[in-house]
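Input chain follows. Return structure tokens only.
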Amino acid sequence: MESTGRIFTCVHCFKQVIICSRCDRGQRYCSPDCSETARSHSQRAASHRYQQSREGRVKHALRMRHYRRRKQIVTHQGSQSSAPNGLLQANSTDARKPPITHYQSVVARRFQCHFCGCDCSEFVRLDFLQRRRVRYINPLDPRGSRNDYSP
């Protein structure tokens, strides 16, 4: 029997991915590479926000002061010499290649899990599987409640 699948769009590369219910752990990314790339972007943005704050500026200045004391030299390397001719050739054929597009019929497409490769049902979910909620039933108090008797 085919397992049910969930279709989602990768938050980083916007690729549509199908994942079977066995592999589904609430993934938001299509691969570990997308996950690592998104994490590095997030960390870089957080670092930038921190560097713009007053506390970040003070700590950065202190760190650079310690670095200057340790090294005694604070200079940048000179820039590399540029190529003498950075222009493209006029007969470049790469710019004229038409874009390659592949169209697949939805009927002929097999629905497979992106992670384990198993076949999935053609009826895919758009959201997570919901756990069945067990309602807590309060046992009746033998004495009744305050609202049982009205004067």
